[in-house]
Amino acid sequence: MDPAFQLADVSAAQLVLIGAAALGGSVLGGLAGYGTGLVVPIFLAPVVGVANVVPVMAVGMIFANGSRAMAFWRDIHWPHARRVLLFGLPACVAGAYSYTLLEARWVALLLGGFFVASVPLRRALARSGWALGTRGVAAAGAGFGYLNGTMTGVGMLLISLLMAAGLQGAAVIGTDAIISVIMGFAKIALFGGVARLDAELALAGVLIGLCTAPGGFIARRLLARIPLKVHTAFMDAIVLAGGASFLWRGLA
Predict the structure, then answer these.
(1) pTM of the predicted model as reported, rounded to 2 decimal places
(2) Is residue 250 classed as helix, strand or coil in its secondary structure?
(3) How far are the Cα atoms of 26, 28, 61, 137, 148 from residue 119, in angstroms, in the given order?
(4) Alpha carbon 36 to chain centroid distance?
(5) Contact, 48 vs 1, CB < 8 A?
(6) Which of 125, 139, 161, 155 is nearest to 91 (CA)?
(7) How do residues 59-88 score in pLDDT, each as one tens digit?
(8) What total of structural domains would you count in the chain?
(9) Residue 4 domain-assigned?
């Protein structure tokens, strides 16, 4: 286990770096529909400890996803949201509990492995053209829920799931956001109940969440100026570097 985290031990420079990473990750998330949960942990882990990354991010992502849910409330496709949550919500709780049983070394290996695999996985999903019926949405929701409970940065899987179910545009963003908010509260309740999320870690998550708030507005302005290929390549490079750093922590 990592040593107990104390917010008072964090230097001003570290706070600025994490805040900047949270804002930058939020901008990337606004541009691509995912990314905040992949970028921020890279800078967060050295400060709060690897084992505390997922609980802290669970709090921080409530703000990012909550603001998107409110902005796209009218576009939420509630039938698909309910289908994903039917099996996905209990699976998420089970996944979060599994996470609490892991040592910091295995958490680092788990996060690092997923981050590195996420780049080819995203590209494969984009090319596959897979489609899901109503039963498939519920079944896939269970798999996503479990992964969402055990790690951070799996938003691209939910985006792909909803698009395979036939949703497009604003409906994808809104439905993704409300599902993520509900699962996020479930993770927070589980982590708090088993003493893996104390007041210090929760406050760190709140601060990260507040830093993500302007990201969507900045992303909207940048969207028309940054070529999609450049943005995607930049994001892939960050995620791969972060995944390698987590793997190094776990192996070392």
Answers:
(1) 0.80
(2) helix
(3) 18, 15, 21, 23, 17
(4) 6
(5) no
(6) 139
(7) 998 988 887 788 788 889 999 999 999 999
(8) 1
(9) no
* 5 part of a folded domain: no
Contact by Cβ (8 Å): 121, 138: no
Instruction: Write out the residue range of the structural domain in which residue 33 sits.
Output: 11-251
210 vs 104, more confident:
210
Q: Which own/partner contact pairs does 217-226 have at CB distance under 8 Å and 24+ positions apart?
A: 218/23, 218/27, 218/30, 219/26, 219/27, 219/28, 219/29, 219/30, 219/31, 220/30, 222/27, 222/31, 223/30, 223/31, 226/31
> Which residue in this structure is represented by tokens 């982590």?
191
Query: Would you say residue 184 lies in a domain?
Result: yes
Segments in the chain forming alpha helices (H)? 12-32, 36-48, 53-71, 78-100, 104-128, 134-150, 155-164, 169-193, 199-212, 215-222, 228-251
Question: CA triplet 67, 28, 78: central angle to 5 degrees?
Answer: 40
Q: Is 131 helix (H, G, I), strand (E, B) or coil?
A: coil
Half-sphere exposure of 203 (CA within 13 A, CB side): 9
pLDDT in tens, 144-203: 999 899 888 787 788 878 888 888 877 887 898 899 999 999 999 999 988 788 888 888
- CA distances for 210 relative to 96, 110, 202, angstroms: 24, 27, 12
Query: What pLDDT does 126 receive?
Result: 67
Q: Is residue 58 part of a domain?
A: yes
Cβ atoms 200, 5 nearer than 8 A? yes
38 touches 118 (CB < 8 A): yes
Tokens of 85: 């949550």
